[in-house]
Specification:
The chain is an alpha+beta fold and 450 residues long. The chain has 3 domains: 2-154 and 182-294, Rossmann fold (3-Layer(aba) Sandwich), CATH 3.40.50; 302-380, Sandwich (Immunoglobulin-like), CATH 2.60.40.10; 385-450, Type 1 dockerin domain (Orthogonal Bundle), CATH 1.10.1330. It is 23% helix and 25% strand. The chain contains 10 helices and 22 strands. The chain has helices at 18-27, 61-73, 98-104, 106-117, 232-254, 260-270, 289-294, 349-352, 400-406, 434-442, and strands at residues 2-4, 48-50, 85-88, 92-95, 121-125, 135-137, 145-150, 156-161, 170-171, 179-185, 202-205, 209-212, 225-229, 272-276, 279-286, 302-307, 314-320, 325-328, 333-335, 340-347, 357-365, 377-381. It has a 4-stranded parallel sheet with strand order 3-5-7-11. A 4-stranded antiparallel sheet has the order 19-17-21-22, with no helix packed on it. It has a 3-stranded antiparallel sheet with strand order 8-10-9, with no helix packed on it. Helix 1 links the parallel strand 1 (2-4) and strand 2. The longest helix is centred in the middle third of the chain and has 23 residues, at 232-254. The radius of gyration is 25 Å and the shape is globular.
Length: 450
């Protein structure tokens, strides 16, 4: 879903692939096309909000304000998947402080503040001008997390056109500005084009990112994928994807989401410190998602420990589990001789649909005969549903999709705790009968607005 604020219509499909490439980095589906493996938060849900008018590539600030406000007013359109992050790879202007930036466009500053107050983390790209003491808007707004760019690998000797006001670079006639910077790119080196300042918040990978594209003339390439997306426009959605993962982990581990201030603090405290070669005194955290998740409160589920009492390394390759069971950290695990691996086992009550059930978690390793639990780990849960009792597909309402699950089990017997006949045995008496039908129809069309 989404909206086109630039042209005031319900079709946010763009005229170029910039937003599509950003979306692929943040939350694209798992993939296996050449170097594309999926987005950082590959299971996250996305809304597309187009702010530019026509195919111009330009936007009015009022449309940007409207897009951020839309996220607040539509935050819980899908109650099971609320909007938790906004990423904006767009901007302009030059600001030397957060205070001057906040005062420049009060409506945009208010929109950012309102989103943060609603629990939404707002991120924006710092810009690609090569500035050493300033950044673009809206990244400079004090309640927005501004994101600069680092390389994620040794990419060789490369150069970029930058602004003549940069503290680095040299004359280069091929650029419109006649000014460019050149580097022998290495992992965790700040890109010379990336705007920096003492009020920059985060750094994230950027250049030569393999991501999604629009096939045809509106895309960067002729196919569905592009292998050279970059700039701080890539760094912002990368960080937004990390925020989505962090929030999912926080919900699983602590039972609640982090506030935007807690997200900001966590990313800053757990990121890897990187000095900018342009201004070595400016050291900023490069997002480290593993560290961020590890910093969260102890497991709020059940902890199981996998022991290796043998003389070699135990390689746990996978654990069979239903979708509603989470494992932190997820497998695979490499457990050296005499050591162990603690795993936090959590249950997503929305996914498990809110009824009593039990499952086995089967552990697969390179030494199955000595597996600590060769027959699996037994798990039983009793979760509240996010919707009424008849919300069998757990989308927080009761409609024909739920009926299509209920009906095939009518008069079925032998229902048990394994899944209570896909939840159709609402009374959990071992069969799907009139008592279950009475419960099912009691809140028919709940949550549908009909």
């Amino acid at each position: 879903g989404g909206y086109d604020f630039g042209d005031d219509d319900g079709d946010p499909f763009p005229c170029n692939a910039h937003g599509t490439s950003c979306a692929g980095l943040a939350a694209g589906d798992l993939g296996s096309v050449e170097d594309y493996i999926g987005g950082v938060a590959h299971n996250a849900k996305l809304y597309a909000l187009k702010i530019s008018y026509g195919c111009s590539g330009y936007a009015y600030s009022d449309d940007m304000v409207a897009a951020w406000d839309w996220c607040v007013s539509h935050q819980y359109d899908d109650p099971c998947n609320p909007i938790m992050a906004i990423s904006t790879s767009f901007g302009g202007g030059r600001f030397f402080s957060e205070s001057s930036c906040d005062a420049d466009t009060p409506t945009m500053t208010a929109a950012a503040d309102n989103a943060v107050a609603a629990g939404i983390t707002v991120l924006a790209s710092a810009g690609n001008n090569g500035w050493c003491d300033s950044m673009g808007w809206p990244a400079c707004i004090s309640s927005v997390i501004s994101v600069g760019a680092v390389y994620d690998d040794a990419l060789g000797y490369i150069g970029f056109c930058i602004d003549t006001d940069s503290c680095t670079g040299e004359y280069y006639e091929a650029c419109d500005s006649n000014w460019a910077c050149f580097q022998t790119a290495a992992a965790d080196m700040v890109a010379c084009y990336s705007n920096t300042a003492n009020f920059l918040d985060q750094l994230a990978p950027s250049n030569m990112a393999y991501t999604t594209d629009i096939a045809g003339s509106e895309g960067y390439s002729s196919g569905d994928y592009y292998d050279s997306f970059g700039g701080t426009s890539a760094a912002s959605p990368y960080t937004a994807g990390a925020v989505a993962c962090l929030q999912q982990a926080a919900k699983a581990l602590t039972g609640s989401y982090l506030t935007p201030d807690e997200v900001r603090t966590t990313l800053a405290a757990t990121g890897d410190p990187i000095a900018d070669d342009k201004i070595p005194s400016i050291i900023k955290p490069r997002v480290n998602l593993g560290n961020a998740i590890d910093s969260l409160s102890p497991c709020q589920g059940q902890t199981m420990t996998i022991y290796n009492d043998g003389g070699g390394t135990l390689e746990v390759t996978s654990i069979d589990r239903p979708a509603w069971v989470g494992l932190l950290p997820p497998p695979p695990y490499s457990i050296t001789a005499g050591s162990n691996q603690e795993v936090c086992v959590t249950v997503d009550c929305y996914e498990c649909n809110g009824y009593d059930l039990a499952r086995l978690l089967t552990i697969h390793s390179n030494d199955p005969d000595e597996n600590p639990w060769p027959d699996g780990v037994y798990i039983r849960v009793d979760c509240p549903s996010c919707g009424p009792a008849g919300d069998l597909d757990n989308d927080c309402d009761e409609d024909m999709l739920d009926y299509s699950i209920f009906a095939p089990h009518w008069q079925e017997t032998g229902c048990d705790i394994a899944d209570w006949c896909d939840g159709a045995d609402l009374t959990q008496n071992g069969q799907v009968d009139m008592y279950d039908l009475a419960e099912f129809v009691e809140e028919w069309l709940y949550g549908t607005g009909l």
